[in-house]
Design goal:
This protein is an alpha+beta fold. Among the domains are: 52-121, Cytochrome Bc1 Complex, Chain D, domain 2, CATH 1.10.760; 151-156 and 340-444, no CATH class; 168-321, Jelly Rolls (Sandwich); 511-549 and 568-627 and 634-727, no CATH class. Helix content is 39%, strand content 14%. A hairpin with a 7-residue loop joins β21 and β22. α4 crosses α5 and α14 (453-466) runs antiparallel to α27 (775-786). The radius of gyration is 30 Å and the shape is globular. The two termini are 43 Å apart.
């Protein structure tokens, strides 16, 4: 294996050199300097050598943090973060130095904070000392899967545009066959959950024991993962999902043997894409010709699924579309996890495991294309011009994969040579495909300096919004040199935002931002929360997903609604848990809970349940979430894991009092002066997100103290009581706005925002505010900035 890797790596290095790519060391791709537009706040000046804070730092701080804040053996972590001077001064005043915080207070704390902030602590100082760069990146796993799906899909035709119609087309037939001459009627059925009883769909138009139904349309899964498809019926059924015409049905129980009434099969699907679906049902007494001997039997059918992180449920109407679509190529190859140590997916390193996976994925993709070439190239096996058409197909495939028209040299290398040396045109095609899919021009972003600027811009747009390659309109705009101005780029971005791929990427981003993207298994104490179940947890997660979709894509695409909305999506199963009267089978609907005390995501039942223990709330977990993810603060990991104080050991203390007691040590206060007051504001909600006014401790109902505070990076300290007041402040908080913009930029571009200049983040934030905090507009603004390609000097170096 080691020898094989060396051989592969040598080939990769050789190909990379030809393509103009530099690979550093054995695993990490070399960063490429990058500049971009900058306006707004000016970079802070470095701290002067005679700054009074330097004396304080050398006397009280240097022994632990080193002369330049890089750390020491005892305190190895670099002294870096994103607190403002005011926040840093308060923090030093209260907690530093750890052995005696009284040594640096008041004016001295302010002076040393100013020195540290300007010398090496702040992001601006770090950018000055070591400028942020755009790093050369390979395709992430998400990008690889999306790219090959769209590469193949481009030859199958476009999917229908988004519209509001949902459900599946149902065709109802006389007799047991799906014969168009026996069609009785057609209709759009919202879900497949029918109990026909003994008489069938309509006793006046159907024989009760002889009718058939065929449902067709598309399935749109909300997220990527393995879905277990389930059919429940005692009669003949067959399900085809994402079939290209010659594939076997996913579930085939059309010829019945035995009494099984439930049929299951798993399938891996990419979220946000439409997959062709056909479900056939037939009721007949097989082998009985004399109708007088027929016995009426009960007929029913359900189409269900078990989605990733979910439980078994009827496939909901919102995930069904009554339009036909082409099949989607879904890669089966497994990849190792991408690096997310910086908070967002990156492809800045190459390992043996990743390269082996990429090679296997290329082989799988090439095999699929060759197996379906007749359909993809509209080509018959005995066509007299088959060789020419296969060669033309290979050239078009290579250009799409490389995100740029082929130069003459590339065409000779990637197309002409494989075909010239092949024993047959089909073998030549496969060799060409494998060469393309293994090329650095395909595997890496920013891989070649000779790509025309317009096509570089197009690729950045498509990867930013779709994690995939440009579509036909974007390609044509690049070819016509219509991506040279900010207005032209923004116009394309506005078009591309209204695409299923963008929607699923933003949903994934929001789940990642809220740190619930893995769908953690929520376990609650059966004594305290007997009503809780896996089904309740799955419904809570769906409720949150619907809310996030509504905020991002509803009529008011307003970031502030993430905090100010007082309605929650509730269905029949969740309703009794939160004091709402709904039928048991009621679908999700928006309901105002608790007389308006709810406050968007920070008080959503799912998030509150995740950020809690099995039997009690956790102000610390909730406070960390608010401080780190919502407000964008850097929190130092705790020096050691500490178990929470058990409630039974302190029966007279409320949760707030126990947390305050446990974190009262000076070493804890380093972070908990920020964490605790934020988490305390959510104490009015219990461990499964129900509103409460009291907490029972020691047999006594003790009133909840939900008061809290936060010192923003600029301005006076904010104080609040309860989730509504906290959320009202968050909706207007510059810290929260900036954190959201930065997180979204990183999720889209997968590069550090400061690589585009130290002021880009603030410029985007101010534009966000000026546009009424429109999330869709922010997507366009980010990509308008990030898609502008750099210039190339005579030496090939990327510069502003």
């Amino acid at each position: 294996m080691h020898s094989a890797w060396n051989t592969v790596r040598t080939a990769l290095l050789l190909a990379a050199t030809v393509a103009g790519v530099t690979l550093a060391g054995s695993t990490t791709l070399a960063p490429v300097p990058m500049g971009g537009p900058s306006a707004g706040l000016q970079a802070a000046e470095p701290a002067a050598a005679d700054h009074p804070g330097l004396t304080v730092y050398r006397e009280h701080c240097g022994r632990c943090h080193g002369d330049d804040g890089a750390g020491t053996k005892d305190v190895p972590q670099p002294l870096v973060g994103d607190r403002s001077v005011a926040q840093l001064a308060d923090y030093i005043h209260d907690t530093m130095p750890e052995d005696d915080p009284s040594l640096v207070t008041g004016a001295a704390a302010r002076q040393v904070a100013e020195y540290i902030h300007g010398a090496f602590y702040s992001p601006v100082a770090r950018d000055r000392n070591r400028p942020a760069r755009v790093e050369l990146s390979r395709l992430t796993t998400r990008q690889f899967r999306n790219v090959v799906a769209d590469l193949v899909g481009a030859f199958r035709g476009p999917a229908p545009a988004l519209d509001g119609v949902r459900g599946l087309r149902g065709e109802y037939f006389l007799g047991r066959r799906h014969d168009r001459s026996q069609l009785v009627f057609e209709q759009v059925d919202p879900e497949i959950d029918f109990d026909f009883g003994l008489e069938g769909p309509d006793p006046e138009r159907f024989e009760p024991n002889r009718f058939a139904i065929r449902w067709t349309g598309s399935l749109v899964p909300p997220e990527t993962g393995t879905y277990e498809m389930i059919i429940r019926s005692a009669h003949a059924v067959r399900l085809s999902l994402n079939g290209g015409g010659d594939e076997q049905p996913l579930i085939d129980a059309y010829v019945r043997s035995g009494t099984a009434a439930e049929h299951r099969a798993g399938i891996f699907l990419l979220g946000g894409r439409a997959y062709p679906l056909q479900l056939e049902f037939s009721k007949a007494n097989q082998g009985v010709d004399n109708k007088r001997h027929e016995r009426l039997t009960h007929a029913s059918i359900q189409l269900l699924w078990k989605p990733p992180h979910g439980t078994v449920e009827t496939v909901p109407e919102r995930c069904l579309v009554p339009h036909d679509v082409p099949a989607t190529f879904v890669l089966k190859a497994d990849f190792p996890p991408d690096d997310r140590s910086t908070g967002y997916e990156r492809g800045t390193s190459v390992s043996k495991e990743w390269f082996a996976a990429a090679t296997a994925a290329g082989i799988e993709t090439a095999a699929h294309v060759v197996d379906h070439i007749g359909q993809l190239a509209d080509l018959k096996a005995d066509a007299p011009d088959r060789a020419d058409k296969l060669r033309a197909f290979a050239a078009e495939f290579a250009a799409a994969a490389f995100r740029s028209p082929l130069t003459d040299d590339l065409r000779r290398l990637m197309v002409d040579r494989p075909f010239a040396d092949a024993p047959s045109p089909d073998t030549g095609l496969k060799r060409s495909l494998l060469l393309v899919l293994g090329s650095p021009r395909f595997l890496f972003r920013e891989a070649a300096a000779d790509v025309p600027a317009a096509f570089n811009t197009a690729a950045r747009l498509s990867f930013g919004l779709w994690d995939s390659i440009p579509d036909r309109p974007l390609w044509e705009a690049a070819a016509a040199n219509q991506l040279t101005t900010a207005e032209q780029v923004a116009r394309q971005a506005e078009r591309m935002v209204d695409d299923r791929r963008t929607r699923v990427k933003i949903r994934d981003f929001l789940f990642s931002w809220l740190r619930i993207d893995h769908g953690p298994e929520i376990v609650k104490d059966a004594v305290h929360y007997s009503e809780f179940s896996p089904e309740i947890a799955a419904d809570m997660r769906t409720s949150l997903a619907l809310f996030l979709d509504d905020v991002a894509w509803g009529p008011e695409s307003d970031f502030r609604r993430l905090f100010t909305d007082d309605e929650v999506y509730v269905n029949g199963r969740l309703a009794p848990l939160y004091g709402v009267s709904l039928p048991v089978d009621a679908p999700f609907r928006r309901i105002r809970l608790d007389d308006g005390r709810r406050a968007g995501v920070i008080s959503h039942p799912y998030l509150l349940s995740v950020l809690a223990y099995a039997d009690a709330t956790s102000p610390i977990h909730r406070g960390v979430f608010l401080a780190r993810h919502v407000l964008g603060n850097v929190l130092r990991p705790p020096q050691e894991a500490v178990a929470p104080l058990a409630p039974e050991l302190h029966p007279d203390l409320t949760t707030r009092q126990r947390v305050a007691t446990q974190t009262s040590a000076v070493a804890c206060q380093t972070c908990h002066t920020m964490i605790n007051p934020l988490g305390f504001a959510l104490e009015e909600f219990d461990a499964i997100g129900r509103h409460r006014r009291t907490e029972q401790r020691g047999g006594i109902d003790r009133p909840i103290d939900a008061s809290g505070s936060y010192q923003p990076r600029d301005g006076a300290e904010a104080t609040f009581r309860g989730a509504r007041e906290l959320a009202t402040w968050l909706a207007t908080s510059r810290d929260a706005q900036e954190a959201f913009v930065q997180n979204l930029f990183h999720a889209l571009v997968k590069q550090p925002v400061r690589a585009w200049g130290p002021d880009t983040l603030d410029t985007l934030r101010r534009s966000f505010a000026a546009n009424g905090f429109d999330v869709r507009r922010l997507l366009v603004d980010i990509m308008t900035v990030a898609a502008v390609p750099p210039s190339v000097t005579a030496t090939g170096e990327l510069v502003p």
